[in-house]
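Section 5.1 Outputs to date
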Amino acid sequence: MTKLEVPGTALIDPDTDLASLRGDCARMVPHWAAPVKSTPPHVSPSSIHGVSVPPASARLLDAMSDYGD
């Protein structure tokens, strides 16, 4: 693997740095608090009357093969 030189820093080995970053993250996990999950309120289908889509967005989606075809 090629070592990259960045001005003002030591040589960087991407493999070593990734392993070091993963290790740092693993050590920090106990310090991170997960947010409390909240469930969104239930919306009955009868209360949904339609969706307004701006013309520019509709043209964009129409041009995408995943959605328009």
